[in-house]
Amino acid sequence: MNILLAVVVVLGIITLTQLIRVFELTKSLNGTKDNEVTDKENNGIANGFMLYLIGLFSFFIWLVWAYGPFLLPEAASVHGEKIDLLMNFNWAIIITSFAITHILLFYFAFKYKRTKGVKADFVTHNAKLELVWTTVPAIVLAIVIIYGISTWNDIMTDEPEDALTIELFAKQFDWTARYAGEDGVLGKSNYRLISGTNPMGLVTLETIVEKLAELEKKKAKLELKLSNAEPNGTIAENTEEKIRKIDKHFAKVFAYQKEMEMDSNLFLTGHDDIPVKVEFHLPVNKPVKFFIRSRDVLHSVYMPHFRAQMNAVPGMLTSFYFTPNKTTDEMRNITKNPEFDYLLLCNKICGAAHYNMQMNIIVESEEKYNAWLKEQPTFFAEEARVDKELKEIVASN
Ligand SMILES: [Cu+2]
Fold first, then answer.
1. If pLDDT is split at 50, 70 and 90, which confidence band does 386 have?
2. Ligand 1 center to 353 CA (angstroms)
3. Measuring CA to CA, which residue among 355, 293, 284, 302 is closest to residue 72?
4. What ranges do the domains of the chain cover?
5. How many CA atoms lie within 13 A of 380 on its CB side?
6. R_g over Cα of the chain
7. Residue 299: which H helix or E strand, with range?
8. Which residues contact 199 (CB under 8 A, 6 or more apart)?
9. Cα–Cα distance measured from residue 193 to residue 202, given in angstroms and rounded to the nearest whole number
10. How far is the CA of 255 from the centre of ligand 1 (A)?
11. Secondary structure (DSSP) of 233-263
């Protein structure tokens, strides 16, 4: 089979060279040189350039018309309007230079096709022309950069003191939004306290005690395993290593507890915090400051309708502040889509279920927002509920 294939390929190449040979021979019999372009060919190529120019711009206009409606609707935040202005300014420059350069490129190719008897000018360089095509883009770029930086500074500074604070907590693969609760202060968090029942690592006396108990339980299990293992074997060695790690973890949490006990208020700030999933609400026309954390890998908080994006970096607290200025209902009217919802998405490819990392955002009047927030269980209440449920399960068994 392989030999047959090789034979076909070789025969194909031979046929092709023979065909070229026949073509060359007919040309020399007709009396034309094979490197000479006829007027007919020349005109055909020149007209082709014009056709291409018309086709290119028709396609461009069709793309804008057909896909324009799929772009984001108008900005739903105060600073978003500034971002859109900056974006449109850039588009205007890009589209204008695209149109001018491409029209000239193809029109010149058409206009200056070879004409018999006309000789092309020989130009080595033109200082004036070079000066123009260096300074004009330099000035335009400088304007774009200065305008961009000043918009960025405008957006990132002048944060109001009374902004509502919300934490956005990212992990593979979901978001949690945490409200500060009645005291207006977000409770502390510590990654060493992360457990099945405390996925955000919130700090309260209860979560610390729970964590210490969990570590003690784990250690007791490992010690039992060690006592049954063959002395100095690999299992014993591995188990000893695990116990050492748990001891270290325990010591760190214990030291943290002592440190926190200096100011007992620190334990309480987390109690009234309100963690929510799937959907979170914002009051309209109120500045909101987001504190952004990641538990595992790089994620990115992306709220396209508010023109907001900020990375969620493990081990680092990032933040972004904005003021939503259109309610969800208003936006449903604007987009003529009764199912429209603002979205929080993850904008860093963070793993297999990255596409699934999203939350709905509802922007509403302050009264509605307050009513919604009142209904959400606090961290403490939720923990007590889970605790009670667990105890009931244990009791019924
Ligand atoms: Cu992610």
1. low
2. 8
3. 302
4. 78-113+125-158, 164-181+272-397, 188-268
5. 15
6. 34
7. strand 299-303
8. 171, 176, 295
9. 7
10. 32
11. SHHHHHHHHHHHHHHHHHHHHHHHHHHHHTS
The Å distance, Cα 107 to ligand 1 centre, comes to 48
Q: What is the pLDDT of residue 230?
A: 78
Task: pLDDT band for 309, please (50, 70, 90 cuts).
Answer: very high
Backbone φ and ψ of 176, nearest 5°? -130, 135
Q: Nearest Cα to 165, choosing from 316, 290, 283, 275?
A: 290
Residue 56, pLDDT > 90, answer yes
Query: Ligand 1 center to residue 295 CA distance, Å?
Result: 10
pLDDT digits (tens, 9 = 90+) for 120-160: 888 888 999 999 999 999 999 999 999 999 999 988 887 77
Please give the distance, rounded to the nearest whole angstrom, from the Cα atom of residue 292 to the centre of ligand 1.
Answer: 12
Between the CA of 177 and the centroid of ligand 1 the distance, in Å, is 14
CA distance 301 to 308: 8
Do residues 274 and 369 make contact, with C-beta atoms less than 8 angstroms apart?
no
* Mean pLDDT for the stretch of residues 154-173: 85
Distance 311 CA to ligand 1 centre (A): 10
Q: How far is the CA of 309 from the centre of ligand 1 (A)?
A: 13
Rounded distance from Cα 214 to ligand 1 centre (Å)? 29
CA of 336 relative to ligand 1 center, distance in Å: 30
Residue 305: alpha-carbon gap to chain centroid: 13
Q: What is the pLDDT of residue 277?
A: 87
What span, in angstroms and rounded, lies between the C-alpha atoms of 108 and 170?
55
Distances (CA, A) of 340 to 73, 120, 306, 334: 11, 61, 14, 10
Q: Which whole number is the average pLDDT over 31-37?
A: 67
CA of 171 to the centre of ligand 1 (A): 7
Ligand 1 centre to CA of 296 (Å) is 9
Pick the CATH number of 164-181+272-397 from 3.40.640.10, 2.120.10.30, 2.40.50.140, 2.60.40.420: 2.60.40.420
User: Is the pLDDT score of 387 beyond 90?
Assistant: no
The pTM of this model reads: 0.74
- Cα separation, 252 vs 346, whole angstroms: 32
H-helix segments, 31-77? 39-67
Expressed in angstroms and rounded, the spacing between residue 34 Cα and the centre of ligand 1 is 61
Give the pair of three-digit tokens for residue 2.
């392989």
